[in-house]
Hints:
By secondary structure, this protein is an alpha/beta fold. 32% of the residues lie in helices and 22% in strands.
Amino acid sequence: MDFVEVGCADNLEMSYISNLSGGYISKNEQIFSxxxxxxxxxxILEKSVHGTPIFKLGSGKxxxxxxxxxxxxxxxxxxxxxxxxxxxxNKEIKNTLFFIPFAAPKATMMNxxxxxxxxLNRAAHINDSxxxxxxxxxxxxxxxxxxxxxxxxxxxxxxxxxVFSTKSPTPESFLIANYIARDVDCxxxxxxxxxxKYNGAVEDVCxxxxxPAITGEVLSPFxxxxxxxxxxxxxxxxxxxxxxxx
Length: 246
């Protein structure tokens, strides 16, 4: 689907990844209460009812994606993604940025880790899964770098604020993650080869396809918004963009 201009904001265009994944974000009170209801955010929430919207900002050489909501019950990064888009909307961007605030709006609506009973971060290698559709759109758009942002609970994996990366076949994944970890003071987790530990993760599949990608994790209880977690996720996203001079 082609990108079309967004009437409520200059220099912003949108398209859909899928028309089969829509949901009412407003039904998830944990996340909805954290979203400022300005014109842009109302527009994003409205479009999310009909599928997975993707937004394009700027028109520079580097194409960079900020992705969140691959797990619908990991809320801080989804809020931070919208906040980042709001902050950048009136800035002069010398790169092309793509934003997917809600990878699976239906899963976010239900505050569920799963979309249609599937863990999307273990399914990006499975044809026709929603996460594989996202990866294919990344390829089709010629996106150069991907930041996939999540949250983790204390008793889960990794259970600490961290940035995941791989050293091969895309060594720049490690360089980006190392930059973020040093910049925001969080744990660096590096896998020697993409896919050898987390088969089907969006980050790993992107790296295997030659697109450097990282996964950012901040601490927050699942299905809730932990204190300071949105701010930390936003900091990770900004550090990710800072690596590219944004």
